[in-house]
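Backbone-to-sequence.
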């Protein structure tokens, strides 16, 4: 089993300021400073995907991460867009899938250089690169240290889903205990006490969500993050999903006249703000709006062109594939496929149960 037996030893300074500190705080004079870490990390005794080294600053997290798992591999960023910084051997499909899986879904941001991204966007694209470019164990130091706690928790949830789905191994070091319930590590090592703990998967914390009908102006907050267009028809009915009182996802509904079919409404815009990407909120919003409109005798269709949206709607039990369009193709198993370099698109219709209670709120 991997064991920790690390000694960090340095020569103590004899500068004037150091001697002043020794005198002021009555610190005994030492020739050398020595810190020793001894313990076991028995991860070879069971199957695992996610590990966490957690504790306060200065307790030895980075030292142990480096000695046991090789440390964090440095990343360089210099491309005109972040997608150009990924390894040349990776396809655009692999890159986009990894970015979407960690909640980095804002396609316009993919086309920008790393230097102009927000801290939350940098956090997610760094995760995507490490997950794709690491052959063995994915190692991340100072995990979630530079982002706010909402982004940290949602990002932790997104990365653990991807790691388990891909069958990878991921080890992070962090001083934040609030990510544990979201990252769902299979094991935790705490250098402060040199204790190792195995964990079982648990349900992530619940979020209080609310959907409200909002005026057209609410679209302005979400418009910069839509993958196709910032335009929205003035006649659109706008719905916003709030998480703990904060706006998170948006759906714009448009009546779509049809020569043969009555009462067709389309979701013309479906977008989630970057800080909330990775939880599936957009799909929850689409399902809820679909159920509310169905209770009013209306039919709801979705016309996605985003690859992740198409895959998710195709897997849904409450959305039925109606027809292909553009470059999308339907196989005998009714699954969506597309060729490299083409923009996929399809039409889905809500086929789930009607929800009269939702219709009372969403009107």
């Amino acid at each position: 089993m991997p064991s920790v037996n690390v000694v960090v030893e340095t020569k103590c300074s004899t500068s004037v300021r150091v001697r002043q500190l020794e005198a002021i705080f009555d610190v005994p004079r030492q020739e050398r400073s020595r810190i020793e870490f001894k313990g076991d990390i028995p991860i070879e005794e069971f199957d695992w995907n996610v590990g966490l080294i957690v504790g306060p600053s200065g307790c030895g997290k980075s030292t142990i991460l480096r000695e046991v798992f090789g440390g964090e591999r440095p990343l360089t960023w210099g491309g005109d867009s972040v997608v150009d910084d990924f390894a040349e051997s990776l396809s655009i499909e692999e890159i986009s899938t990894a970015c979407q899986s960690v909640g980095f879904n804002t396609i316009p941001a993919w086309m920008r250089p790393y230097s102009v991204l927000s801290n939350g966007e940098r956090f997610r694209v760094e995760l995507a690169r490490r997950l794709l470019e690491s052959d063995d164990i994915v190692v991340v130091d100072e995990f979630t240290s530079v982002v706010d706690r909402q982004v940290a928790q949602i990002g932790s949830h997104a990365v653990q889903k991807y790691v388990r789905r891909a069958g990878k191994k991921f080890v992070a070091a962090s001083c934040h205990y609030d990510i544990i319930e979201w990252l769902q590590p299979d094991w935790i090592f705490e250098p402060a006490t040199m204790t190792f703990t195995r964990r079982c998967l648990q349900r992530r914390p619940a979020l209080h969500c609310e959907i409200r009908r909002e005026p057209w102006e609410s679209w302005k907050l979400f418009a910069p993050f839509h993958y196709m267009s910032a335009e929205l028809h003035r006649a659109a009915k706008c719905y916003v999903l709030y998480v703990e009182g904060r706006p998170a996802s948006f759906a714009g509904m448009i009546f779509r006249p049809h020569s043969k079919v009555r009462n067709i409404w389309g979701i013309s815009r479906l977008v989630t703000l970057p800080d909330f990407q990775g939880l599936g909120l957009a799909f929850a919003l689409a399902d809820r709006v679909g159920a509310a409109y169905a209770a009013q005798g209306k039919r709801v269709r979705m016309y996605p062109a985003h690859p992740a949206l198409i895959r998710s709607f195709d897997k849904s039990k409450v959305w039925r594939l109606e027809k292909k369009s553009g470059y999308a193709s339907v196989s005998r198993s009714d699954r969506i496929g597309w060729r490299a370099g083409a923009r996929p698109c399809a039409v889905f219709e809500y086929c789930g149960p009607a929800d009269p209670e939702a219709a009372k709120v969403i009107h």
